[in-house]
Amino acid sequence: MLWFCVELPALGLEVCARRMPDEDIPAVLVQDNRVVVCNTPASDSGIVIGCSLATAHSISHRLVHFSRDIAAEHERLRFIADAAYRFSASISIHEPSAILLEVSGSLKLFGGLYGLKRGLINLLGELGHRTDIGIAHTPLAALALARSKENYELPRWPTAHDVKTLALESLRRISLRHTECGSDIIERFASMGIETLGQIFRLPTAELGRRFGPKLLDYLERLSGQRADPRFCITPAASFTAELNFLESLSNKESLAFPMQRLAQDLGNWLISRQFGVLRIGWSFVPFNADAVTMEVEFAEPQQNKQTLLSISRLKLDALDLPAEVLSIRLASVRLAPWQAESNFLFARAEHSAHPPAELIDQFKARLGDGACSGIADNNNHRPELAWRSTAPDMRLSKKQRPNTQTKGREPQLAATRRPLWLLKAPKPALRRQLSLLRGPERIDVGWWASTNVYDPAHRDYFIARHSDGSQCWVFADRNGEWFIHGYFA
Amino acid sequence: MADHPVATVQALLAHPDLWRAGRIEPNTQTITTGYPVLDSLLADRGWPKAGLVELLSAQLGIGELRLLGPALARLSVQEQRWIAWINPPHIPYAPALAELGIDISKVLLVQPKTYADALWAFERAVKSGTCSAALAWFDDARLAAKDVRRLKLAARRGGTLAVLFRPDTAARRQSMAELRILLQQASLPDRLSIEILKRRGGWPTERCSLELAYRTTRVTRHELREQLTLWRAKSLCPIGAPPLCALPAPQSAHAGGP
Q1: Is the ipTM of this complex over 0.90?
Q2: Which domain holds residue A257?
Q3: Which B-chain residues 178-237 have CB contacts (< 8 A) with chain A?
Q4: Looking at the structure, do residues A81 and A205 belong to the same domain, yes or no?
């Protein structure tokens, strides 16, 4: 059993600071009028933990302070646990600010202990959190090691025995402050001169139990691994929703870019950890005391990449009318599909395939509207207007097919074609004297059921003619002898 | 002592910093136009696979699409990328495109509503590298020289054959497209008269005429007259009545006649 504990020392502040539009503003978390956590710009400007709020404000005039929002912290911890799902399947949350992962099964996938550790630190850094990681053979030991920020060397592929001995050795050095014992017990030990866990381990357990009660014994046994410590593991959520509230309402679209980027990043990480691709997402922009404005963005293919999600959403946002002041943004996944990663060819033939073809369609749809983009196809009908139809663009292009060297395409021949390349949407009247006929006639019956008089089927006699202005057109004479241009042989 | 003049000139010409106009590197990324006459006039022996081409003509329907036809057919079959048509003036007719040899499952029609949207769509299609060819028709009065330059750079980046169709009045305006061809009607049907206004590695050419692929007219004048007479005779009959006289069996096959 190999347990990682990810401790988030500044979680309270980071949760509140997500609402800030700008990351460079100094911010502190306040409890009982004292600063308990401060972020990097704040500590750079000279604010220390433990100073009073008034002092802090006098040091930095741009300071923003928050009080603890326990519900938001819990929600965020849950979200981070979901995000960490890509590293391990057994994740449990330890209040108030730690996550425990059992990773013995994931070592090989991530290339050893340090690869896994780095991956976790990077992921949490992307999500915007500072972390301390503790590694041990039991969850409580890992927690204590993380809190004490004690580092010790482990081999890249540690055995259970290595982990146990090295962890116990480091545990002996850490002070009692970082353990889960109550503060009164810690005081009593301090008055006895016992500061570290190592000293406690040397004491006889029977005496300890008689003096301090069975709870302490239970804790120590679970800490050292003599007693099992099973944990409830979380099950990840089936869909994604996230919300960001702002301190001040935002009123122009450029300032929305940063929070939208954060939300898109969260969605991207969630999708990767659950191995889903998203087909439709819904953004809601909520003003104060009014209805939210929603925007749904649809993708032709399941997407996972946060840059794609963000760029197409921004394109669509340009055309949207937002309320004057936006107080919060919500992002939810509306339609999900299982993710299928595509394997690339070893020798890629297409040099210019920087973007997948489906992305072009998504961008066109986002900016030009849903109906602006279409493909064409044959239709099995003899009537010229109906011999073609408009279809959705053929997405089979995006599936990487092996370049076809066996089947040759239709080689262009010098064949006679009798259909024009341009078809007019409606036939245009023309004068007979402007046309000099070249080939014809070809009679096309447009269907007796389509004409008003059943004894008078509407038929058209089509010719290929040359117009006096030089173009070669497809003209027809209808039953009344009127001439129309229906297409051009471009 | 003066050296032999020829030797000094040769020494000068061999200098690496000197570039001679005739010594232009052929662009290897070209696709043959399908017309040997046109290929021989172009230094690169074909349309550039990554570049901007302008086709200027006074009116539609004189053969501009058939000029591109063989190249489009080859591109649509060989490459797994779109062929985008931005703002086409009429409907590209699927049966005819299929007969030309173009794979119509790769055709993408884009109908933007405003000029700015159309320009954006063309640039995106060309720059993204997802189209092997992109054809566009714009409102020429609003098309500025800097837009054309941007499109040329975008085409080069995305590896797309970008074709811009413009009216012949644009021939007088400057343009940064690397190939500009003026198309005019020829005296005979199925022929096109072309005049290259700008090309790589050469001066503008004189007018020459080429025979278009996909001939539409194969009947002779005599046959045509015969068919027209028959047609007129038949069209004078009321529907349902027996024919006035026994018509002779036609010599040539009617194109799906009565």
Answers
A1: no
A2: 241-366
A3: 184-185, 189-190, 213-219, 224, 227-228, 231, 235
A4: yes
